[in-house]
Amino acid sequence: MGKVFAVVVAAIAVVSAALFALHIWWLPVDISAHGSRIDRALNETMVAAGVLFVVAQLALAVFAWRFGPEPASRAVKTFPGGATPMVVLAVVLVGIEILTLTFVGSKVWAGIYQTPPDPNSLQIEVQAEQFAFYFRYPGPDGRFGAMHPELANDATQNFFGLDPANDTTARDDIVVGSLAIPVNRPILLALHAKDVNHAFYVPELRIQQDFVPGMVIPLHFTATKTGKYEIVCTQLCGLGHYNMRAYVEVMPEQQFNQWLKEKAAQQ
Amino acid sequence: MSVPTATVGGPHAAPRGFWRTHVFSVDHKVIGKQYLDLALVAVVTGMVLSWLMRFHLGWPETPIPGLGTVAPNAAPGGVVTPEYYLALMTMHGTIMVFFVLTTAPFAGFGNYFLPIQIGASDMAFPRMNMMSFWVTLVAFLVLISAFFVPEGPALSGWTAYAPLSAVGKDAGPGQGLGQTLWVVSILIFCVAQLLGALNFIVTTLDLRTKGMSLARMPLSTWTWFVTSVIGLIAFAVLMPACILLLLDRVAGTSFFIPAGLVISDRLQPHSGGSPLLWQHLFWFFGHPEVYIAILPGFGIVSHILPVFARKPLLGPRVFIACLIAIAFLSYTVWGHHMFLSGMNPFSATLFSVPTLVITIPATIVTLLWIGTLYGAKLRFTTPALFCLGFVSVFVSGGISGFFLAQPSIDTYLHGTYFVVGHFHFVMGVAAMFGIFAATYFWFPKMFGRMMSETLGKWHFWLTFIGVYCVFMPMHYLGLAGNVRRYSAFTDDYLKPLIPLHRFITVAALFTGAVQLIFLFNLIRSRLRGATAPANPWQGTTLEWSTSSPPPHDNFGGPPPAVHRGPQEYGVPAGGGPTDYVMQASP
Q1: Is residue B19 part of a domain?
Q2: What range does the domain containing B114 cover?
Q3: pLDDT for res B8
Q4: How far apart are CA B323 and CA B298, in angstroms?
Q5: Which of A 34-53 lie inside 8 A of B, CB atoms?
Q6: Which residue of chain B is at minimal alpha-carbon distance from A40?
Q7: In Å, how far is A30's CA from the nearest CA of chain B?
Q8: How confident is the model at residue A173 (pLDDT cuts 50, 70, 90)?
Q9: Across all residues in chain B, what is the average pLDDT?
Q10: Would the pTM of this model clear 0.90, i.e. be above it?
Q11: Chain B contact for A108 (CB, 8 A cutoff)
Q12: Which of B85, B261, B262 to mutate to test the interface with A (most CBs of A within 10 A)?
């Protein structure tokens, strides 16, 4: 029985680890300036955690194989050195791992979320609501009109609660249902939630951030590859959560400027 | 301090009559069994809900036979609607976390065995003990009743994030009465847990028999004790949080609702609240809750494994130190659920460090279990196999924590199936394996009959392989960016992952069906199992010094005095007529 257990555990460990190592299911292509640092941290953790996983499962397998009930005359033995080597092993091995992960990981995190955005970032406001994202560009005047929640109304397509009748800065604001950004230019999003919590997640951009009602949360990144990618909501927001998505189209700078002009003309 | 139990604990005489003996009993053994029965009903319910979810995820358009009749509005024609999917998910999570993982290993087995293991004739407060169970039952009934209200159960998940959970029915079906029932149920549950935790703590500290010093307490009792301390603090935070949420819902307050919310084109009449406050309060409870679910499993494995290894656990004092360290650290890590919540990103680093540090005591404990196997004479009984399985799945679930503890990697993996795989392994499956080990191990003591070993082993092998087929692929899904809590994967980047979802669904249905073997074994053994001797496994602790099942006052007279530690196995070295010495042996 111990041998069967050993074989099963070893097989589970090896197959599971192999499926990770073969990258059959893996992260999509990275299109962000910061993403390679996340990917490297993830890969390093994968190696460290993978080794610990396989070694621990194999130790379990080997001991189950080796230390069965037979022979009856054999006396039990204690692990050489008792519990001390276990404590030392855990403190040293895991301690080193923790120190490394903390130093490396904190740096990566700080580089994304704790550094101020580039002052020349393109600023875009995002409004999340059940179950859609809307994006707002300041228009030719370079200024965003103020938001008035009481004016927000989906039926009149006033998703941001703008007041163009009284607010001149709001008149030229460009509001669209799909995000367009220029490649290689820092982007600064301001995340607003109209009703409940939502989240902004683009796997390819290696970025994720909750929207919280009552808060304006900044999020900045730079896309490095052109193409069209999905923005999905990852914070449970109601029955249409699964269907809450938009697209981000990363365009060459010129094409983006052209797009912006066309949209401005439509306002 | 040890106090003779005759003067303090269990002053009540054996009850007479069916109702007092079996239903409204103050006997901790009956209450323990009632908790376990409730957990069994809850786990079957929770599992069936997960089958419906899994089936829907694999084959979203295919009707589920019979479901259209049972839930004509929620699943017209047998096809689950998006809101019903979320309702199933919310109820699955809530039932499993609160009414299975908290109820069975802690309240169930703890109630039955803690007093016996310390040599007491009952809990310190038997009536309060009875009250905790009945209050728990009321909480369960209130929760389940949400299935029978017109708009169905809440759909905001077991975490019930505000303002989705706070603003009422404008936020969607189920967010009206369904969500109110959810809040009320959890509120009631908190009361029961607080009563239970107090009772466990007082019983452990005051009712130990002569000679039962803290150092001689079985490790299972140690974990129930530490768990009750964690629970006392954790539920004492969740309860007021639930009261505030309830007030937001029914009394027009704004604890968790800020100004300017527009829901269904209606400006909400609230201002001044903070949605993040709910998250902080919830996770201040929620993370320790993970340890409330898993620590009794630690104790069960540390108690059972030595019995079948025929040697003491390696470093029992180190184990206890690790337990206390985990209990302490469990209150410093809640923010790792909130790295991307919008809280100050600087605090993410602050929460990341203790999260990683808590892996040190967890790793030490795991190494103690593995090290205990070295040089053992392992008897591969069903409870022993489930203990070994526990170690394996705990390792698998624990190691993925290294990823999620780092805010930078969480940036990618947060909100994906990687998280689902992680917590199901580490607190769901591992805790369930602890429950299974405990059931096979203590069933003879509780019912005086042995469970079938053949059926037990089939149950173990198929479950062990099954859970890996269900939960390991969820990590692959998460790496591929598969978002959790989606009721369907429409025409998008997630579509290529549907075959893997189908594999998981098939594995989940299979693993679920395997549990019928366990149910059958439970029922058959209860009626026709071989008669159990007092000490079938050659254990040393006090529960094996009394008859199977124990008499009303546990020991048929004054509890025995204790003369040694709980794990004197493998003595005398080199073998003798027996290889163990009972705690009660002079």
Answers
A1: no
A2: 31-545
A3: 44
A4: 9
A5: 37-38, 41-42, 45-46, 48-49, 52-53
A6: B409
A7: 11
A8: very high
A9: 94
A10: yes
A11: yes
A12: B262
Residue type for position B191: V
In this model, does residue B1 exceed pLDDT 50? no
The answer to whether position B571 is within a domain reads no
Q: How many Cβ pairs within 8 Å bridge chains A and B? A: 333
Q: Which domain CATH number covers B399?
A: 1.20.210.10
Which residue is it, tokens 């099963």? A8
B373:A67 CB<8 A: yes
pLDDT of residue B11: 55
Q: How many domains does chain B have?
A: 1
Residue B6: per-residue pLDDT: 43
**What is the rounded average pLDDT for all residues in chain A?**
94
The ipTM of this complex is 0.96
Residue B555, classed as helix, strand or coil, is: coil
Query: Which residues in chain B have their CB less than 8 angstroms from residue A93's CB?
Result: 363
Task: Out of A2, A93, A234, name the one closest to residue B380 (CB).
Answer: A2
Q: Is the pLDDT of residue B10 over 70?
A: no
Residue in B318, B374, B457 closest to A79 by CB: B374
C-alpha distances out from residue B482 to A221, B416, B477, Å: 22, 5, 5
CB contact under 8 A, B415 and A93: no
Q: For residue B407, name the pLDDT band (cuts at 50, 70, 90).
A: very high
Class of domain A122-266: mainly beta
Residue B7 has pLDDT above 60, yes or no: no
Which pLDDT score is estimated for B5? 44
Is residue B201 pLDDT above 70, yes or no? yes
B:342-361 residues touching chain A, CB 8 A cutoff? 342, 345-346, 348-349, 352-353, 356-357, 359-360
Separation between Cα atoms, residue A121 and residue A212, nearest integer Å: 23
CB-based contact (8 Å) between B82 and chain A? yes
Nearest-neighbour CA in chain B from A101: distance (Å): 7
pLDDT tens-digit readout, B113-156: 999 999 999 999 999 999 999 999 999 999 999 999 999 999 99
